[in-house]
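Lab manual, section 2.4: Encoding a predicted structure.

Procedure: take the sequence of the chain (550 residues), apply the prediction step described in section 2.3, and record the output as structure tokens. A sample record is shown.
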Amino acid sequence: MSMARRMHLSMVVLAALVVVGVACADPPEPQTNPPEQAEQPAASGPRNGGRLVMAVESDPGDLRPTAGPWDSSALQVGRAVFDRLADYSDTYQLEPALAESFTPNVDFTEWAITLRADLVFHDGTPLDAEALRANLEAQRTSPAAEALLRPVRAVFVTGPRTVNVRLRAPWSTFPHVLTTQVGFVASPASLMAVDGGARPVGSGPFRVRARGTDGSFVLGKSPTYWRDGLPRLDEIVVRVFPEGAARVRAVEEGKVDVALVDDPVLLALASARRAARRTQVLADLEGEAPKLTVVLNAGRMPFSDFSARQALGYATDRAEIVGDGDRGFVKWARGPVVDTSLWYNDPPVLPHSLAATETELERFTDRYGTSLTFEVLVPDDPVIRRFTTRWGQQLRDAGISARFRVVPLAEVRQAAAVGGFDAAVLPLFGSWHPDLWYPQLHLSELTPVGAPGPNLARLGSPGIDGSFDSARATTELARQVDAYRAIQNDVVTGAAYLFLVRLPQGLVAGPDVRDLTQRTTPRGSPGLGMEQGTVSLTQVWLDREARDTE
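Recorded output:
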């Protein structure tokens, strides 16, 4: 496979089938057809105007970029209200967005961020160097970014549009951080306002007109948006539909134009029925996405013992975790990156072996005089529960005793952060650039059980640390690839993370929605179509003739 192909984000367009619900049991296998490779073509060019109604899974919550980590619902709304400092092309090339440039010093211990001229927030205040400094300073203590920005020593203004970020050590890949939630810039006043999370103020293509108590939003076209001729839509209405099947049904009934859908069964059924339905389904099948990961707490027994971790690795058959109803839309995961990634190196995953599992269990029993037993925390999410149920059956087949406790996702994350768990199932490693794994894997972020920290497995190694530091000290791609591949090997052989499957990301849309995944960056490059199951709405438009003629 060529490097260009490895870095390409593949989008497929399908037709959706409404289903009334999805249980944790395996669904019947649909008869799938090969997916098409482009969005439905428009009969004419882009048009301005119109209202788009979008369905998301949950209340987006606090939409200040300095709040806790956003889920896909929050990120989708956030991408409409804010623009980021940096963006990715469709080949994952980093480009300035709100920023005009990123300039390092000779050893990458300081970066100058220069903003574009004449940027304005929705409240009329300037998005200047002082506003950027205030945002970056707030991010340094935010729940989502504190650990990631720990290497930042100081942030200071050096000109009307320029902020310098001084670092404690070389960090050649620092601008990639600015594609994350850190890169979304809010009006400083809104960061401090009591209702700042409910009515966020950014500089993006749409501004908040209203917000409902149910998490719904009305977003209006910003008259001060800095990209000429954009956005194309006049208004976006965001509505919350917790059930995936209900979101799909709303699109098919014409009540909603676009819905976020992450269930592979819905996507597979949509593929089977695309000829009979009037619904587009955009599925990110090859790009980087979160991996459903079993985190084993190496900070306490039983998984401080290597044999216990190895036993679970040998008992896991990833290929069989992907059920018949998921095939074509879910890939089993061999490590923290997808196999189409530039960084992928086919890490040494333990083969499925019941005999090897038994050997490791016997070693554990011989050491401690007791059999291996533990509890697994599982988020109350139907897709995650479905895959976890299959994995749990594999453990039982291998003679491993585990108790599975289903709790809200936030509770799983909290227990993992403080080390109050044996094993936990979480969606992790969704970032394209491996540098963003640093807080989760570096020994500097390892905290004892009971103290919060991002190193959830309570495990690290000098080898991983050295590889991260080596990659941050250079801009040579070959050296960085070698370093990140070494990290993958160390993570897999440490056996504290069991990677099960790559979770799918998708959208369902009506027949008249155009350019959901076809966009250009501010520099004019083709932009990355889908990120973490969300799209940019800046260049989306409505081809109402398509609905009228079908």
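Check your result against the sample. Residues 28 and 233 are 39 Å apart (CA to CA).
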